[in-house]
TrEMBL record:
Gene: Brwd1_0
Protein's name in the database: BRWD1 protein
GO annotation terms (biological process): cytoskeleton organization; regulation of cell shape; regulation of transcription by RNA polymerase II
Transmembrane segment boundaries: none
Organism: Psophia crepitans (common trumpeter)
Keyword Repeat: yes
Keywords: Repeat, WD repeat
Bias type Polar residues, positions: 239-261
Family annotation (SUPFAM superfamilies): WD40 repeat-like (SSF50978)
Matching PROSITE patterns: WD_REPEATS_1, WD_REPEATS_2, WD_REPEATS_REGION
Keyword Flavoprotein annotated: no
């Protein structure tokens, strides 16, 4: 196999360069002389995450598709700590990204199963208030392209980046309570009645009908005279115009030829 570098990172003081190679080795180099100092052995698959400690120049974190997370002392070429991302009933989860906190006391990782892993000192009590399953209700909504080939949300006909802030739901599409909806940027100061999404029955690709969030607006906004969406407003306006034209046609037909004008015809 021809060696290929998959990731590269400088340490905190730029004295060392660490490269990840597709033969699963990490190599530590002297950044001034180019001399190879250490081969770091431990990964069993390709590594795409190398993260340096924010202030300790000795520490480097690596993570890869094998589910392993290592903390290395790159000056000695030794392994300081090792974690394995084992998911019960599903095997290991590949680690896609990791970042240290600014104080260097914690680091967070994301994996292929949609999990956020937080490592560090202290207890996990502050994180227990967060539900285990958190998705945006628009995460898996289908997209379409308009006549200009721009991407639109299929349901609302809006550009995704112009849509209102989404709602937080669980893996089955059920919305979380209002206290969690305020965690979404743009909904921090909303009143409770504005954090209740509209629910409706939607057919999935396999024909199953499930109840999901279908609207961005609250359930009481129809009473306030607000449109649930731009598309709904356009449909109502077009329907009103059509009803007016239909009424005008009927009046013309009932008046007959005595009016002196021909009855308008539809194309």
């Amino acid at each position: 196999m021809k060696p290929k570098v998959t990731m590269i990172a400088w340490n905190q003081n730029d004295n060392y360069v660490v490269t990840a190679v597709n033969n699963h080795l990490l190599k530590v180099w002297n950044s001034c002389t180019g001399q190879l100092l250490h081969d770091l052995v431990g990964h069993a698959d390709e590594v795409f995450v190398l993260e340096t400690h924010p202030f300790d120049s000795r520490i480097m974190l690596s993570a890869g598709h094998d589910g392993n997370i290592f903390i290395w002392d790159i000056t000695k070429g030794t392994k300081t700590k090792h974690y394995f991302n084992m998911i019960e009933g599903q095997g290991h989860g590949a680690v896609f990204d990791c970042k240290f906190s600014p104080d260097g006391q914690h680091f967070a990782c994301t994996d292929s199963h949609g999990h956020l892993l937080i490592f560090g000192f202290g207890c996990s009590r502050p994180y227990e208030k967060i539900p285990d399953q958190m998705f945006f209700h628009t995460d898996y909504r289908p997209l379409i392209r308009d006549s200009n080939n721009y991407v639109l949300d299929e349901q609302t006909q809006q550009a995704p980046h112009l849509m209102p802030p989404p709602f937080l739901v669980d893996v089955d599409g059920n919305p979380h309570p209002t206290k969690y909806q305020r965690l979404v940027p743009g909904r921090e100061n909303c009143a409770d009645e504005h954090l209740i999404p509209q629910l409706g029955y939607v057919a999935t690709s396999d024909g199953e009908v499930v109840e999901q969030v279908i609207g961005q607006q609250t359930v009481d906004q129809d009473e306030q005279g607000l449109e649930p969406s731009i598309l709904d407003g356009m449909i109502r306006q077009l329907q009103l115009q059509q009803d007016q034209r239909t009424g005008a046609d009927q009046e013309s037909a009932s008046s007959g030829p005595n009016s002196g004008e021909g009855t308008p015809r539809r194309g």
